[in-house]
Write a structure and sequence with these properties.
The complex is a heterodimer of chains A (235) and B (387). With 235 residues, chain A is of the alpha/beta class. Chain A has helices at 51-59, 81-91, 107-117, 122-135, 151-163, 181-195, and strands spanning 9-18, 25-35, 40-44, 66-71, 74-75, 92-95, 169-173, 201-205, 217-222, 225-231. A 6-stranded mixed sheet of chain A has the order 6-7-8-3-9-10. Chain A has a 4-stranded antiparallel sheet with strand order 2-1-4-5, with helices on one face. In chain A, helix 3 (107-117) crosses helix 4, helix 3 (107-117) packs parallel to helix 5 (151-163) and helix 5 (151-163) packs parallel to helix 6 (181-195). The two termini of chain A are 25 Å apart. A 6-stranded mixed barrel of chain B has the order 2-3-8-5-7-6. Chain B has helices at residues 2-11, 13-44, 46-50, 74-81, 144-148, 200-206, 227-238, 245-259, 262-291, 293-301, 306-338, 351-378; strands spanning 56-59, 86-100, 106-114, 125-128, 139-143, 170-173, 176-185, 195-199, 216-221, 241-244. In chain B, helix 1 packs across helix 11 (306-338), helix 2 (13-44) runs antiparallel to helix 9 and helix 2 (13-44) crosses helix 11. The chains are: A alpha/beta (235), B alpha+beta (387). At the A-B interface, helix 1, helix 2 and helix 3 of A face helix 1 and helix 10 of B. The complex binds adenosine-5'-triphosphate and magnesium ion (MG). Residues 18-19, 25, 27, 47-53 of chain A line the site of adenosine-5'-triphosphate (ATP).
Amino acid sequence: MHHPETLAVYCRGLTKTFGAGEMQVQALRGVDLEVHPGELLMLVGPSGCGKTTLISIIAGILHQDGGECILYGQDLRQFSKNERVVHRGQNVGFVFQLFNLVPTLTVAENTAIPLLINGLKMAEALARAKECLQEIGLKGREDSLPTQLSGGQQQRVAIARALVHNPRLVVCDEPTSALDHQTGRRVLEVLKSLAVSQDRALIIVTHDARIFEFADRIAHMDDGRIVDIKTNNRH
Amino acid sequence: MLSIALKMLFGDRGKYLGIITGIALASLIMIQQPGILISILSHTYSFISDINLPDIWVMDPKVKFIEDSKPLLDTQLYQVRGVQGVEWAMPLYKGQQRVRLDNGETVGSIVIGLDDATLIGGPAVMLQGRLADLRLPDSVIVNEDGASGRLAKPAATPGGKSIPLKIGDVLEINDKRATVVGIARGTPTFQSQPILYTTYTRAENYALSERKLLSFILVKAKAGESPEAVARRISRQTGLAAYTAEEFKDKSLEYFLNNTNILVNFGFVVIIGFIVGAAVTGQIFYNFTLDNLRYFGVYKAMGTTDRLLLRMIMLQALIVGFIGFGLGAGICGVFAAATLHSNDLTMHLNWQLLLGSGTAVLLIVVLAALFSIRKVLKLEPAEVFKG
Ligand SMILES: Nc1ncnc2c1ncn2[C@@H]1O[C@H](COP(=O)(O)OP(=O)(O)OP(=O)(O)O)[C@@H](O)[C@H]1O
Ligand SMILES: [Mg+2]
């Protein structure tokens, strides 16, 4: 077993229950998971099995009821609420199913947000956002509004936004399910080529079997547990 | 992130303009209504403030306010002159007379009779002619608003502009000739009646029916004597009512406020303005936050602290408050300037009024922001993954 500090994510016995009494739902029933730096892990499983709940806890936006979740050797529970927020701002990038780009902000401004949250000045943040957009193939669209872009382009902006502050963990929840197959594949190609790096781990929740080939490992969840982890032997 | 907050605000043009308009209207109402009220109220005692020479006004004890008058006896004037600490005491006649115009129409006007020798109590600012010309036979001085208003001659052609009175025009007061020798500036009286100044003797002559004419005795206290002390002494020794100018203004104002619903009426409009302003603006602002809740959630997930979120929303609220209030106050300023010399509706604008309404607007936007902030702070960041 790897020591937690050399791991990007180390989860042991994670549990999470929503609601109380009759309405109680046990979303996680003891999840064990390890994700390595430089790895692209896909999380798959039937609807309601707890995938979103799991990545929410790993990303630090939700608290587990029990078990351990350690990020690069750090247990978020040792932090104050405010420290956790700041930690998240520095270390985690998010990609959402519905892009969640702010419609009143330009593409460059949207991309710059994580940098602004981390305290960069607007001018510098925009400059770095534009570099990032160029890398992702959106040069020339920096000053467009999100609604002026196609779905695939919008998701690429969202990816740029998730990577612009160079986080050590990127979580994506169904990043391709709002896109057609071709576009979804291209978005995954972009993610794979830009997001994966030696000191970053990528967790992608997906239903989309057509993008499984991009994964290094695929974790199958069912009913609040990880039931199976396969290394992808596509090579 | 603060400039991002502003971009979000300005980017939602419809809501932004809605909020600004709401606040501008609320500020407009909250400044304009009290402004008009103050202006109206100042008219209730403008006659006292326009005559700035005397320190003390002496009158019959039954007089309740400036428009009221109960004649005094001439002997009472001499009594007042005999009180210690009185530098001088002059008679002032103030009464209603009917003034007949060229075309035979009569207009109820206020005739002021000034001490023949000193003309004390005369208008401070002459626009045409000189105060001293009142010593000419049959002469009267008319206030500006009367001259261009109710005493103006009808237009030569129907629908044309009426012709203001000018020096040399002749009027009739109770069938007696009155020649205009000057036009004076004066705050319009509450009922906007024309004011005609003349000498005390001539006023006696114009007002045939009344036997006793002495309405007020204007008193100057000797240097070194406090007007209050002299006023008290006059009351004690003569049995008349004696007030300093300030006291008389307050008394007139108080009488007016106690005998009308004006404060309640205006207060009601102001409160409605505040409530509607708060409700409308608060509602739109809150909706604006709700529209952006998803994005606030995204910011939150991405590591924006509660403190920063609070500052973002507070900034948005303060900016709309500032711009809206600026607009409202600006419109009021234009209105105040435009009506400065108008006959009827004028409006008073002072810093207290701006401070008061500014504070009310601040309250509105801070309240609106607090509701929004509460909503955003309660937001679970994990909600961002929900579709
Ligand atoms: N905030 C919540 N309150 C109550 N129940 C919740 C909440 N979030 C999730 N659940 C429940 O927990 C279970 C797991 O939900 P989760 O969203 O993690 O599933 P999922 O695997 O992401 O499903 P999907 O593929 O449909 O997105 C579900 O039964 C869901 O109804
Ligand atoms: Mg989900």
